[in-house]
Amino acid sequence: MRLLPRRKKPFELDTRLAHTGRAPSEHCGMVNVPIYRGSTILSDTLEDWESKKTQDNPMANYGRFGSPLTRSLEAAVCDLEGGYRSILFPSGLSACTHALLGLLKVGDHLLISDSVYGPTRIFAERVLKRLGIDVEYFAPSDTADLIARFKPATRVVFVESPGSMTFEIQDIPAIAEVAHRQDAFVVLDNTWATPLFFKPFEHGVDISIQAATKYIVGHSDALLGIATANERAWPALQAAAHDFGETAGPDDIFLALRGLRTLSVRMKQHHESGLRLAEALQAHAAVARVIHPGLPHDPGHAIWQRDFRGASGLFGVVLKPMSRSQLSILFKNFNLFGIGLSWGGFESLALLVDPPKRCVPTGGCDGPLLRIHAGLEDVQDLIEDMCGALDSALCVETAA
Ligand SMILES: *Cc1c(COP(=O)(O)O)cnc(C)c1O
């Protein structure tokens, strides 16, 4: 399949987003790769059948291993992440768990960032420990703490930068240098930054994961995971996906490819609106602290500026202490912010987050913690909606 028009000089990002992973001449001129539904893939001759096992992708002989649609999304995301190969999973969590299962064996030591996505942590606690893997957590923004926890048996360092809920930025190049000195792998959950705002393989990552459910799909209407590996990690990643029978449904893949085409324009807006909303909230009387690596006072700001090309629309807000009834009023007064899990769609969300489970003490999260997703609505409308709801919550206190 021809996946990109040929030219000597590489095309710029926005051009690649519009053109990678599709080949109209191979699909009756259709602009988008059509949805392929199928389990059985027929061969014309015995030779044709046998050749399918020896091609570059040795698993093109059965629907579970995907279709031209699967290869299209994999090729497009691999190009953007800058890796060697990509493979799809039915969800973002599934991409995380199978990357870990592919690399780890009994007796290995796994280091995980303390602010990792909750279900990844539950998987490590419930499944990996049961399989005899030594699981340990490190302080996400303290590289010295991580280095001190390295053991000869350390096989994988799992990072997520910034971390879920508390948004600590990690020094990935420094972490990768230590890990690679002893042949360990660095696996990154790159969902927050997307392949546009953080280039994992330029910073020493071995496997990069996208919960495509979030920004790549971008419309809150499909679930999908994508893991991209460098050449060293690829055989283990591919084997894990195939051995466990992981496969992604064609409709979800189609929606992810459709979302990918507009990723760049959407991310520019999420970046700008997220920052403007964060700045407005910083000035509000009900707010103790805004956690957003794009803000100059943020502890992760310097590394974010060095390593990232932008910020997504997801950030945290620590409120000054508030009663339960004030919190209820706050959420009742949102007109534009939906209350619900996931993020990365076109619409804004707000969530009251449970105190995050941590092994390494982290300061600065004493009041109620909100996770906010700035969507694609007019940013001034978003600021007025959020600040107005906070005003109402404060009024209750004064009235009481
Ligand atoms: C949502 C999320 C996931 C999991 O994605 P699903 O598609 O919901 O399984 C993984 N990592 C991060 C950082 C996420 O936000």
From TrEMBL:
Pathway in which this enzyme or protein is active: Amino-acid biosynthesis; L-methionine biosynthesis via de novo pathway; L-homocysteine from L-cystathionine: step 1/1
Source species: Tardiphaga alba
Family, similarity comment: Belongs to the trans-sulfuration enzymes family.
Protein EC: 4.4.1.8
One protein family per Pfam: Cys_Met_Meta_PP
The gene coding this protein: metC
Lineage summary: Bacteria, Pseudomonadati, Pseudomonadota, Alphaproteobacteria, Hyphomicrobiales
GO molecular function, one term: lyase activity
Enzyme superclass (EC): lyase
Recorded catalytic activity of this chain's protein: L,L-cystathionine + H2O = L-homocysteine + pyruvate + NH4(+); an S-substituted L-cysteine + H2O = a thiol + pyruvate + NH4(+)
Family annotation (PROSITE patterns): CYS_MET_METAB_PP
Keywords: Lyase, Pyridoxal phosphate
Name of the protein described by the UniProt record: Cystathionine beta-lyase
Cofactors that this protein relies on: pyridoxal 5'-phosphate
